[in-house]
Amino acid sequence: MHMADALLSPEVGGTMIAVSAAAVGYAVKKISKDGLDEKKIPLMGVMGAFVFAGQMINFTIPGTGSSGHIGGGVLLAALLGPYPALIALASVLLIQCLFFADGGLLAYGCNVFNMGVCTCLLAYLWIYKPIARRGVDTKNVFFASVAAVVLGLQLGAFCVVLETYLSGVAELPFKAFLFLMQPIHLAIGLVEGIVTSAVLCFVYSARPELLVSTVQETKLTKGLSTKKVAAALLVLTALVGGGLSLFASAYPDGLEWSMEGVAGTAELERDGPVHKTMGGMVGVTAFMPDYSFAGDEEGSSVGTATAGIVGSVITLALTGGLGFAVGALRRK
Questions:
Q1: Could you state, in chain order, the average pLDDT of each consecutive group of 10 residues for the chain (332 residues)?
Q2: Count of CA atoms in the C-beta half-sphere (13 A) of 101
């Protein structure tokens, strides 16, 4: 559900950058005030990398000609808490934008809000946490994950439609676009919810304290080690980013599919000065556009696998580094 710059006016794009910056700033303030469990800082980096790799794998939605990928917001929030999760997901989206030209720079604020705020803050706090507080077990984790992911994606999809409408994108009439976006993202949300619950149930079987501490807003005990869980997730990240990404569905994702159904194309163009400037900046920084080697328009399997590994490593370093930085700032 990564939006491109062409779907937004400079006014809407700029406003949403400010809104998302305020949300991320609030998340940093909350962490600085309440503290970030230092035992979860390595998980923050690993899970950020896992979400980056997971978003590269589009799964087919049967009978639609469309595909979807995980957003990862609820997954991150269930393991790290809503505020570290938002920071991690904002980092993932920034890396995707700047280095892989996935989602525009003008659209960055919209993508953070639609995929991050709607899931890490709203869906997690409204749906996942109330259900999980009844008792953290595999049954509640499953229902909480599916319900929260579905709600988060429905909110995010509606925001996409609203943002294009406010931007005056005439090719995407509000009602027609809405009637395609909501159902297809309902199907995508159900699949992502199951994937999210599977990962969380794996973590629960290995270290239930990780999920319990997040829901109860408590810190892990000093003698508890998260190294085995982090190592297992890191191996899984390498397998997903460097291997499974090669088998991603070739069908357009839910947003592109909806655009094609309404406008007949998923590639809209805007040639205003702001769009040209933003596009030019990404053109300079993106060393592997569309997750392939520069100049390789068709994309090769080697390029895709390399992008998956390189992107995961960059995300691991950035999200983990931010976790340590926020922790150090609080101690100081």
A1: 95 98 94 78 91 94 95 97 96 96 96 98 97 94 98 98 97 97 98 97 94 91 83 91 83 97 94 93 93 70 86 92 73 64
A2: 17
* Helix axes of 301-331 and 41-54: crossing angle, nearest 10 degrees: 150
Q: For residue 251, is it left (φ>0), alpha (ψ between -120 and 50) or beta?
A: beta
142 closest CA partner among 58, 234, 205, 225: 205
Q: In the structure encoding, which two tokens stand for residue 260, read together?
A: 């094609």
**Residue 66 φ/ψ, nearest 5 degrees:** -120, 170
Nearest to 92 by CA among 120, 66, 67, 129: 120
Identity of the amino acid at 149: V
**Is the Cβ–Cβ distance between 117 and 151 less than 8 Å?**
no
Residue with tokens 């406010």: 166
- Answer for the pair 136, 215: CB distance below 8 angstroms, yes or no: yes
Domains with residue ranges and CATH for the chain: 5-28+36-331 (1.10.1760.20)
